[in-house]
Write a structure and sequence with these properties.
With about 230 residues, the chain is α/β, with parallel strands linked by helices. Helix content is about 30%, strand content about 20%. The protein has one domain: Rossmann fold (3-Layer(aba) Sandwich), CATH 3.40.50. The protein has six helices and ten strands, in the order E-H-E-H-E-E-H-E-H-E-E-E-H-E-H-E. The chain has a seven-stranded parallel beta sheet, covered by helices on one side. Strands 4-8-7 form a three-stranded antiparallel beta sheet. The protein starts with 6 loop residues before the first strand and ends in a 7-residue tail after the last strand. The relative contact order is 0.19.
């Protein structure tokens, strides 16, 4: 497969990144629903994605034709405020008339192995995704794919142990699963991302740099995250 070069788009601040992301999600939803009658979107955790979901909740959509998945989840109880699924429910799903059966959270409360196994089985019938949203960590990780961690590259999901960020146990979509998305959008905001972006641009093999897509990988970056050139 030909390796895609990400398309970088620069914005003044995180709010502009969030608004552009919503615009791109809505366009992709319209395209997917008109062609196949369904829109399969993978959501990320994090501050900027949360703002995206808040903005998205203001739009009227054919929610019954949307299916929502999550890129990664922490192995915590479902009511824990650190759960990505809870953030997504509070910032988006609780504000719209979304069919409960179309939201597909990761059962990470069952532990890394069982959570990963169950989610792999679930997503296998939905792949490929139409669009995946991702963030980037200060160390260049994305989803819960961390530098230095080794995983079976044939897997659709990974059981993650010893995360450098707490909690140590997680479940993550794999590079293989994410890269089966038609489009991938990576959101990069804040001063603390500058170093990782610099390493990425210099060609270091960070997890975020290894993400591919069927059609296009788009990076939306704000002024604060841009390294000095």
């Amino acid at each position: 497969m030909t390796r895609l070069t990400p398309r970088w788009h620069h914005f003044n601040n995180a709010e502009e990144v969030a608004h552009s992301t919503v615009h791109r999600i809505l366009l992709k939803a319209q395209e997917a629903i008109s062609h196949r009658g369904v829109f399969k979107l993978v959501l990320a955790g994090g501050t900027t994605p949360k703002r995206v979901y808040e903005l998205l909740s203001d739009h009227q959509q054919e929610w019954s034709k949307w299916h929502l998945f999550i890129s990664d989840e922490r192995c915590l109880e479902i009511t824990d405020p650190e759960r990505n699924s809870l953030m997504i429910k509070q910032s988006l799903l609780d504000k719209i008339n979304f069919p409960e059966e179309n939201f597909h959270p990761i059962n990470a409360q069952l532990g890394p192995e069982q959570g990963a196994s169950e989610y792999a089985e679930l997503i296998s019938s939905y792949l490929p995704f139409d669009l995946t949203l991702l963030g980037i960590g200060e160390d260049g990780h994305t989803a819960s794919l961390f530098p230095g961690h080794q995983h079976d590259e044939t897997e659709l999901t990974h059981a993650v142990y010893h995360s450098p960020k707490p909690p140590p146990e997680r479940v993550s979509l794999s590079k293989k699963a994410i890269s089966q998305s038609d489009d991938v959008i990576i959101l990069v905001t804040g001063h603390n991302k500058k170093s990782a972006v610099q390493q990425w641009l210099q060609g270091e093999s960070l997890p975020v740099a290894q993400i591919q897509a069927v059609r296009v990988v788009t990076v939306l970056i704000d002024h604060d995250a841009r390294p000095v050139t």
